[in-house]
């Protein structure tokens, strides 16, 4: 048995759980069941759910925010200022949400079963020029930020600008934008840190949620031992992912900032509380309203997530 | 690229259908051209907004991505009618008479098979993004400002459907030319050498440039 | 059947379809679709009951490609560049440019030839894609040259050769297409094209002067323009200067403080030309005809793009590109030797095919091989046989193959530009044009050899502007 797996880009911290999963499954089945991982060869990153639904490949990764209308239920985890602070917490809450019946139903339209999350740390902003040391300094700052984070930036007077990730470096070097918001690994792979002057350490406006899904029919058609080998490997693969992300990426991140002489901007608790108040509540209300109109139990999903965050805190 | 001069017409049903379809194709191509102008205007607004008003156009990329399929697909059949899609004519350019029409008929048939398959495949792709019961009928939206994508996905199967009609007409045309052994049949693009094509185009541009 | 064999069979099918005269984009799409059906059916061990399923999955998988690949911001440069070219014709800019060049540099030996080269280069700087540049200049420049006693073949050769400049001097649709297919940065490639393009134009100009000096009577100078006449010729050519300025501002960002992206720069250039064309009295009919021409050329290019990308989608399921890259990377001979062989293959192919079709059809397989030749993805400049990082080699190779494709336009026996010039002029045979273009042909071969031997010529400007 061989499954095709559609990822995109290059092998990186963001894909290590899938690589680990392939390794574990192959081990457990003595090489009888293999995952054939393709980086971009099978589909576009925004068409991975379509490919799963067609049955063109059996496993895929995607990010909810790429196409909110395809998967409205999981975009709740992309709301700004949910207060999630660690990868472990992001993982735990994502996994719990993926078990929610409304979420499973939402994804079942695509014949997709949620297998595991790809937990990412909170986005933060890398920029050039004078650092915005208070939130007032954001007025007029041109920043590349999408979705909920873009709306959060608008709240403090910044000007969110859209462009594809691959255009960001050039836009920043040439001054079209002065700042960009990404997770640290993406800041490194898209090169935004190369000529940067500052980095916000604790703005933490939110992140993207990027599940790995499998084709439901293929999963059900799998012989029991293979399915067992696959499902029992998820936790170990995620452990490996989190350790690796914190190790490989975050351990390199701090020294890299120092080496490039990038100023680390840290905001006071009062500043952050004010920001949160201005952004989080209206964004959450808007999300609930929009998604209730789609027939989702939006309030319930939101309470589910915030409830779990509070429990942890 | 072939100019419109190399397609003959007469009073036959085939030729009349050809010209009727060509009118539709011409309008669609013009819409594609206007969409290019729209793209241009969008960029002007975006640059002006950013540099003079300190306020870039929100969702600029999303709008471009929505417009591009209209630009890329609406003229596909128009271009096929004029024989404007690139091909290698080193072999076919040496054929004549019935052999030529047989070869043209065969490749047209294969193209029709592709167009019909893609018409269905792209329609399915549209179908996954469209839902009567959702706000704005949308089941797929753009990354930045959440524009519904179904109009841009719908234009593709529509273009392939019209292309399929065009190919069916050309199949008829080539088939008739083969059956009658015609030298210069109507309603199908006749082969011109690249030099003839470029000369015709230059002449057209010269006229326009004056 | 291994997926590699499958890849080879389907690629063979594609070649047969192309040779049969099927339109290139459709042939690639059909081959890709057939390959996808085969791939999915093989998964079900060719069970007859599953054939319908395989066809449906393949058609849906292929059916995603046209929309999703075309809805791209980077590709939006292509229709814009095309529109600029057509609007510039309609605004009468070609003639104005030639007139200005004649008054300013006509006094040189071979002055009208030099003017033709510079006017064509200037037009190349605003025109993204044009099959008709040579034809237009054949109509504008050749009669003037003949009227003052130019050698017929010489005049024809200058025009045919100068017409090849359009694709290298930015903006260039073909460079944009290359960038999309191999996933390189569009702005960097446009930047990298500038020096080789300008260099080619200077080589042509120098060659014209040198030949006119060596053989008196080949191309007499035109004298006698007053400074007043010279200045009077400028306003007509000014829009070109404006567009070039906009493109320099947006693509090259010389002040480090930019106004926008290359996409926006192209669009602004088009807007400027449109305003001028309207001011010069362009009516709705002319505008509509420019829009129709733009739509047609755009549809032609995009059909090849999505068609080839369906074939590439199939290649994602087969292993052909990586197998070919592995084979090329594992060859015992010098990487330079292999690269030269690849370029020779392009030289042959380029004689039979349109440049855009040729690049699109071959790059999905050839590009990974060139990267492998350079030591693989992520290789550092110091460890590479060409002294280039994997990103840089992508840019360098792009400029070389585009120059190569241009070169094929004047390569005997079927260089297209020579046929075009002969086709426009009743008094010139194809042999005349080929003979006239021979010196330029030799100069181009030397230019390409220099680009291959000294990658720094290509990389100098991008390195300079992107490093700091
Ligand atoms: Na050009
Ligand atoms: Na002639």
Helix content of chain A: 40-55%
Average of the residue pLDDT scores of chain A: 90
Estimated share of beta-strand residues of chain A: 5-15%
**Strand element count of chain A:** 11
Mean pLDDT of chain C: 85
Rg of chain A, please? Answer: 20 Å
Instruction: Indicate the structural class of chain A.
Output: alpha/beta
First-residue to last-residue Cα separation of chain A: 44 Å
Instruction: Tell me about the largest β-sheet of chain A.
Output: 6 strands, mixed
Strand order of the largest sheet of chain A: 7-6-8-5-9-11
Number of beta strands of chain C: 0
Whole-angstrom Rg of chain C: 23 Å
Outline of chain C, from the CA principal axes?
A: globular
Structural class of chain C: mainly alpha
Largest sheet of chain C: none
Subunit structure (chain B): The complex comprises the extracytoplasmic solute receptor protein and the two transmembrane proteins.
Function (chain B): Part of the tripartite ATP-independent periplasmic (TRAP) transport system.
GO biological process, one term (chain B): C4-dicarboxylate transport
Keywords (chain B): Cell inner membrane, Cell membrane, Membrane, Transmembrane, Transmembrane helix, Transport
Task: Please describe what this structure looks like.
The complex is a heterotrimer of chains A (313), B (210) and C (468). By secondary structure, chain A is α/β, with parallel strands linked by helices. Chain A has 12 helices and 11 strands. A 6-stranded mixed sheet of chain A has the order 7-6-8-5-9-11. Chain A has a 5-stranded mixed sheet with strand order 2-1-3-10-4, sandwiched between helices. The N and C termini of chain A lie far apart (44 Å). Chain B has 6 helices and no strands. Chain B starts with 12 loop residues before the first helix and ends with a helix. The model of chain B has no long low-confidence stretch (mean pLDDT 88). Chain C is mainly α. Among the domains of chain C are: 71 residues, no CATH class; 224 residues, no CATH class. Chain C is built from 20 helices and no strands. Chains A and C meet through α2 and α6 of A and α3 and α13 of C. Chain B: One of its GO terms (biological process) is C4-dicarboxylate transport. Chain B: It comes from Hasllibacter halocynthiae. Chain B: The complex comprises the extracytoplasmic solute receptor protein and the two transmembrane proteins. Chain B: This is TRAP transporter small permease protein. Chain B: Belongs to the TRAP transporter small permease family.
């Amino acid at each position: 048995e061989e499954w095709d797996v559609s990822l995109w880009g290059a092998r990186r911290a963001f894909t290590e759980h899938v690589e680990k999963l392939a390794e574990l499954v192959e081990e457990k089945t003595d090489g009888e069941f293999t995952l054939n991982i393709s980086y971009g060869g099978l589909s576009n990153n925004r068409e991975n759910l379509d490919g799963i639904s067609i049955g063109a490949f059996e496993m895929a990764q995607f990010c909810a925010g790429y196409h909110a209308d395809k998967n409205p239920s999981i975009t709740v985890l992309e709301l700004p200022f949910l207060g999630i602070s660690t990868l472990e917490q992001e993982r735990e809450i994502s996994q719990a949400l993926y078990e929610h019946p409304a979420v499973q139903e939402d994804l079942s339209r695509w014949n997709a079963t949620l297998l595991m999350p790809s937990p990412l740390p909170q986005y933060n902003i890398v920029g050039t020029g004078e650092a915005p040391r208070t939130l007032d300094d954001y007025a007029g700052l041109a920043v590349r930020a999408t979705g909920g984070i873009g709306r959060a930036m608008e709240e403090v007077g910044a000007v969110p600008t859209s462009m594809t990730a691959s255009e960001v470096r050039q836009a920043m070097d040439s001054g079209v934008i002065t700042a960009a918001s990404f997770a640290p690994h993406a800041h490194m792979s898209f090169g935004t840190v190369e000529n940067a002057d500052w980095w916000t350490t604790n703005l933490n406006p939110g992140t993207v949620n990027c599940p790995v899904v499998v084709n439901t029919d293929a999963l059900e058609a799998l012989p029991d031992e293979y399915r067992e080998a696959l499902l029992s490997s998820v936790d170990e693969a995620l452990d490996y992912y989190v350790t690796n992300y914190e190790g490989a990426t975050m351990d390199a991140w701090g020294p890299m900032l120092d080496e490039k002489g990038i100023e680390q901007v840290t905001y006071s608790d009062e500043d952050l509380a004010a920001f949160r108040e201005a952004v989080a509540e209206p964004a959450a209300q808007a999300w609930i309203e929009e998604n209730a109109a789609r027939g989702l139990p939006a309030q319930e999903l939101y309470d589910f997530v915030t409830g779990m965050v509070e429990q942890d805190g | 690229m072939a100019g419109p001069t190399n397609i003959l017409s007469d009073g036959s049903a085939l030729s009349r259908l050809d010209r009727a379809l060509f009118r539709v194709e011409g309008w669609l191509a013009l819409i594609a051209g206007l969409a290019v102008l729209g793209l241009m205007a969008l960029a002007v607004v975006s640059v002006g907004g950013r540099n003079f008003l300190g306020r870039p156009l929100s969702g600029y990329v999303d709008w471009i991505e929505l417009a591009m399929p209209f630009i890329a697909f609406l003229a596909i059949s128009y271009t096929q009618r004029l024989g404007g899609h690139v091909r290698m004519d080193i072999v076919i350019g040496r054929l004549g008479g019935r052999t030529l029409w047989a070869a043209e008929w065969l490749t047209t048939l294969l193209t029709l098979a592709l167009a019909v398959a893609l018409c269905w495949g792209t329609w399915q792709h549209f179908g996954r993004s469209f839902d009567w019961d959702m706000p704005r009928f949308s089941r797929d939206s753009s990354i930045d400002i959440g524009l519904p994508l179904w109009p841009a996905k719908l234009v593709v199967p529509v273009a392939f459907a019209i292309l399929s009609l065009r190919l069916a007409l050309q199949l008829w045309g080539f088939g008739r030319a083969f059956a009658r052994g015609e030298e210069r049949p109507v309603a199908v693009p006749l082969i011109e050498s690249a030099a003839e094509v470029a000369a015709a185009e230059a002449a057209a541009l010269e006229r326009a440039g004056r | 059947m291994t997926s590699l064999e499958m890849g080879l069979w389907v690629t063979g099918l594609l070649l047969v379809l192309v040779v049969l005269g099927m339109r290139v984009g459709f042939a690639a799409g059909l081959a890709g679709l057939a390959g996808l059906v085969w791939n999915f059916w093989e998964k079900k061990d060719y069970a007859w009951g599953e054939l319908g399923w395989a066809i449906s999955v393949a058609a849906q998988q292929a059916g995603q490609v046209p929309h999703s690949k075309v809805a791209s911001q980077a590709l939006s440069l292509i229709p814009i560049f095309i529109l600029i070219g057509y609007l510039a014709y309609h605004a009468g800019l070609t003639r104005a440019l030639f007139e200005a060049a004649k008054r300013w540099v006509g006094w040189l030996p071979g002055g009208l030839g030099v003017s033709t080269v510079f006017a064509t280069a200037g037009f190349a700087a605003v025109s993204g894609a044009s099959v008709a540049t040579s034809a237009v200049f054949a109509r504008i420049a050749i009669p003037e040259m003949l009227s003052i006693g130019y050698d017929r073949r010489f005049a024809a050769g200058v025009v045919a050769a100068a017409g090849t400049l359009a694709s290298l001097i930015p903006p260039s649709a073909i460079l944009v297409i290359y960038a999309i297919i191999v996933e390189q940065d569009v702005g960097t490639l446009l930047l990298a094209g500038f020096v080789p393009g300008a260099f080619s134009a200077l080589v042509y100009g120098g060659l014209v002067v040198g030949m006119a000096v060596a053989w008196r009577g080949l191309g007499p100078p035109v004298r006698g323009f007053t400074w007043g006449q010279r200045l009077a010729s400028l306003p007509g050519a000014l829009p070109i200067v404006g567009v070039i300025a906009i493109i320099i501002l947006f693509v090259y960002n010389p002040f480090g403080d930019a106004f926008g992206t290359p996409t926006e720069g192209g669009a602004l250039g088009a807007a400027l030309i449109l305003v001028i064309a309207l001011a010069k009295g362009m009516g709705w009919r002319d505008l509509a005809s420019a829009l129709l021409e733009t739509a047609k050329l755009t549809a032609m290019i995009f059909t090849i793009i999505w068609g080839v990308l369906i074939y590439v989608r199939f290649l994602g399921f087969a292993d052909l590109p990586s197998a070919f890259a592995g084979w090329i990377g594992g060859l015992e001979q010098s990487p330079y030797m292999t690269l030269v062989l690849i370029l020779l293959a392009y030289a042959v192919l380029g004689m039979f095919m349109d440049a855009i079709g040729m690049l699109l059809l071959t790059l999905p397989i050839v590009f990974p091989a060139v990267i492998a030749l350079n030591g693989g993805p992520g290789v550092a400049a110091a460890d590479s046989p060409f002294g280039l990082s994997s990103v840089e080699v992508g840019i360098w190779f792009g400029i070389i193959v585009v120059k190569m494709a241009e070169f094929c336009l004047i390569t005997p026996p079927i260089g297209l530009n020579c046929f075009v010039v002969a086709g426009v002029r009743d008094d010139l045979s194809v042999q005349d044009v080929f003979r006239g273009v021979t010196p330029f042909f030799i100069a181009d071969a030397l230019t390409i050899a220099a680009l291959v031997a000294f990658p720094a010529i290509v990389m100098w400007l991008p390195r300079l502007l992107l490093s700091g």
